[in-house]
From TrEMBL:
Signal peptide: none annotated. The keyword Transmembrane applies. One of its GO terms (cellular component) is plasma membrane. The chain crosses the membrane at residues 9-28, 40-61, 73-89, 101-121, 133-153, 165-184. It is found in: Cell inner membrane. Pfam families: IspA. The gene is yciB. Keywords: Cell inner membrane, Cell membrane, Membrane, Transmembrane, Transmembrane helix. It is a multi-pass membrane protein. InterPro entries: YciB. This is Inner membrane-spanning protein YciB. Belongs to the YciB family. Plays a role in cell envelope biogenesis, maintenance of cell envelope integrity and membrane homeostasis.
Length: 198
């Protein structure tokens, strides 16, 4: 398999579970299911399906690439824990809190590195983004602030809006925010790029 094919397959495996969750939720959101005498909403049912789908997806990514990134491992653990709590306690709030914790953890880790004068982001993305030392520190500060902002935004949305609004925000809003964030870094990439990515 070529490198391009591998990258395409990995991207599909990363985005596939989220897309399946969104489509499944749209189909089942108005329905209630009774399992062992307990009623579950379509959201809870899709959460129960999402967790094993993501586990299989990550296992396939590991088989293809040989390893999972630290971000992927943290995300997987939190999905399993909070997805499991959501289903076990039949309470969708736990799954909605998951992005908040993921972004807080990433923000704290990057912030800790900055306090030590280091860019932990470079250790994760150094082979993808060829930047000089100053560029990595600037990008790390921006990412740190961005992650804290996403955590706060997720809390605001799930606590004040409907489940439909949160699912749309999680599927499209967060993805769009990350895309726009990277677009806004184009000047940084131009001014601090070194041109020696792997």
């Amino acid at each position: 398999m070529s490198d391009t094919s591998k990258k395409g397959l990995v991207t599909a495996l990363e985005l596939g579970p989220v897309a399946l969750f969104f489509l499944g939720y749209l189909l089942l959101r108005e329905r209630t299911f009774t399992v062992a005498g307990q009623e579950y909403s379509g959201f809870i049912l899709m959460t129960a399906l999402f967790v094993p789908i993501l586990v299989v997806s990550m296992a396939l990514i590991r088989k293809i690439t040989g390893a999972l990134s630290k971000m992927q491992v943290v995300t997987l653990v939190l999905v399993v824990v909070f997805g499991g709590l959501t289903v076990w306690l039949n309470d969708e709030r736990f799954f909605k809190m998951k992005p908040t914790l993921i972004y807080l953890i990433f923000g704290v880790i990057l912030g800790f590195g900055l306090l030590r004068g280091q860019s932990y982001l470079r250790a994760v993305m150094g082979g993808v983004l060829p930047l000089d030392d100053a560029g990595w520190m600037i990008l790390t500060r921006r990412f740190c602030a961005f992650f804290f902002g996403l955590a706060a935004l997720n809390e605001l949305v799930w606590r004040t809006m409907s489940t439909d609004a949160w699912v749309n925000f999680k599927t499209f809003g967060l993805t769009g925010a990350i895309f726009v964030f990277f677009l806004l870094q184009s000047r940084l990439f131009r001014d601090h790029g070194t041109g020696d990515a792997d």
